[in-house]
Amino acid sequence: MTAEEDPHQPVGAYVLHALPPNEEAAFERHLDGCPACRREAAELAEAAARLALTPARAAVVPADLLDRVLDEISRTPQEHVLTGLSPGRRKRHLMSWALAASLAAAATFGGIAAWQSVQANDARNQASGLQNALQSGNKALAGVLTAPDATLHTTKLADGASAAVIVSRAADRAAFVAADLPALSSDKVYELWYAAPSGGLRPAGLLPGSGGRSARVLDRPLGQTVAVGITVEPVGGSRQPTTEPLGIIPVGS
Amino acid sequence: MALLSERAEPDGGPGLRAHAVGRTVGRGQARRRNVRTMPSTVYEEEPEPPAGDDADSVEALLVRVADGDKDAFTGVYEALARPVMGLACRILRDPAQAEEVTQEVMVEVWRTACRYRPERGSAKGWVFTLAHRRAVDRVRHAQAAAQRERRAGAVLAGREHDEVAEAVEDDDERRRAQECMARLARMYRVPLALAYYQGLTYVEVAAALSAPAGTVKSRMRTGLRLLRDCLEAR
Questions:
Q1: A43 pLDDT exceeds 90?
Q2: Which CATH number fits domain B1-31+168-234: 1.10.760.10, 1.10.1200.10, 1.10.10.10, 3.30.70.1050?
Q3: What digits encode the pLDDT tens for the residues B100-111?
Q4: How many beta carbons lie within 10 A of that of residue B147, not counting itself?
Q5: Chain A contact for B225, CB < 8 A?
Q6: Where is the Putative zinc-finger domain positioned along the sequence (chain A) (predicted)?
Q7: SS (H, E, C) chain A
Q8: Percent of chain A predicted with pLDDT > 90
Q9: By the number of CB atoms within 10 A of the CB, which of A32, A38, B75, B132 ranks highest?
Q10: Which residue of A has its CA nearest to B119?
Q11: How many CA atoms lie within 13 A of A181 on its CB side?
């Protein structure tokens, strides 16, 4: 393999599902921070999908397949449908996330706001401490932390760590800071997630499994995000959470 | 695009399928539905035939599926199950496995319809992407890389002929996809075809072609860009 002189180069192989797994994961991380690449990937994927039309070989779809599919979907909860909560099975994580996200959306209009502002002072101190501790290079992080419209949203994580999300709707970005994150085994990392109003989740970036203090700007624009979550995932991260969240931080909407 | 102009590329050799596709297209023209009289931009969000108004488009149906509408789901199935099955068959070469993949894809469509965003692309593109991913994952699982590369080698050497379109192409979009693929210069077409239809990674494609991996990777990107330009150009 040649050196990656151009980080966008894998986009063609990516949409063809032709990157080896490690390179695919790496390229998805690149995509996270590269809106132009996401646009290109979407365009090329649309073209690649047309290749499905060129085998004009008559495929015979068994007549009873539709019935079997209909039977299966009658037992398959849809991702955003909360009534699927109890028999969740494979989708249990997503379901509880969906619920959490809608709770988050509801909560931000009500009582939680006061609680948040009490916590905010602590977290803002913590955030500014972190900011000072950072080497001067991280302008993106400083930019979010100091944005004029920045709002602070804090929580305690399930493992006792404290975490805060700083949101700038104007900049369409968010930052995540945490203290006292437990160290993970060497094959695990922390992964952050954006939760949409529908409950859909997007990867928002990784934190090293070394734990302790962490601060970073989240990957990708904030969009309609109503909550930010954190899970433990295998090194390289996951496309969707594979573990229960350690915490979910409502960020308003 | 200058790069596309190699239309008359003398591809008589162990080429993938350009000449065969060309023949098929020729045959199909007599019967093609002549509905594409509008400017080229309409192609971007092409409604599924029978081309109806917006409410009947697969896009509109898929949006309704996200709300749990099973009639809409049946509509999506009827529009797309056959090409999904065709793609899975082509990649897996096994109708029984292709059927399983088709079922899995359709259930995934139901389950994750909320992720589809009409403003970001066609319903067909979204569903075919899911189908391709599943079929490729399965073929990689079922067949060792060496086996897939041997198959690719057979295709390249012309010993195993890639399927030629059998049906008369009365579907305009399908015909256009075939034409655009056939018009791509071989250096771009072959890597796309080996990756898309054989489930090879770019590294495996490079091995099959004895070409540098970086070159193959960059040709995949350029090839798709040219394909897109061609699809949109008419």
A1: yes
A2: 1.10.10.10
A3: 999 999 999 999
A4: 11
A5: yes
A6: 11-38
A7: CCCCCCCCCCHHHHHCCCCCHHHHHHHHHHHHCCHHHHHHHHHHHHHHHHHHHCCCCCCCCCCCHHHHHHHHHHCCCCCCCHHHCCCCHHHHHHHHHHHHHHHHHHHCCCCHHHHHHHHHHHHHHHHHHHHHHCCCCCHHHHHHHCCCCCEEEEEECCCCCEEEEEEECCCCEEEEEEEEECCCCCCEEEEEEEECCCCCEEEEEEECCCCEEEEEECCCCCCCCCEEEEEEEECCCCCCCCCCCCEEEECCC
A8: 21
A9: B132
A10: A42
A11: 27
Q: What is the pLDDT of residues A150-187, one digit of tens each?
A: 888 877 787 778 888 888 888 889 999 888 888 888 88
Does B174 contact A10 at a Cβ distance shorter than 8 Å?
no
* pLDDT class of A5 with cuts at 50, 70, 90: low
Whether the CB of A119 is below 8 Å from some CB of chain B: the reply is no
Closest residue, chain A, to B222 (C-alpha): A12
Pick the CATH number of B42-143 from 2.40.10.270, 1.10.3720.10, 3.40.50.300, 1.10.1740.10: 1.10.1740.10
- What span, in angstroms and rounded, lies between the C-alpha atoms of A94 and A80? 8
**Which residue ranges of chain B lie beneath pLDDT 50?**
1-53, 160-168
Nearest chain A alpha carbon to B87: A52
User: What are the phi and psi torsion angles at A217 (to 5°)?
Assistant: -80, 135
ipTM above 0.85, yes or no: no
- Tell me whether domains B1-31+168-234 and B42-143 share a fold: no
Write the CA distances from B226 to A75, A235, B16, integer angstroms: 43, 36, 18
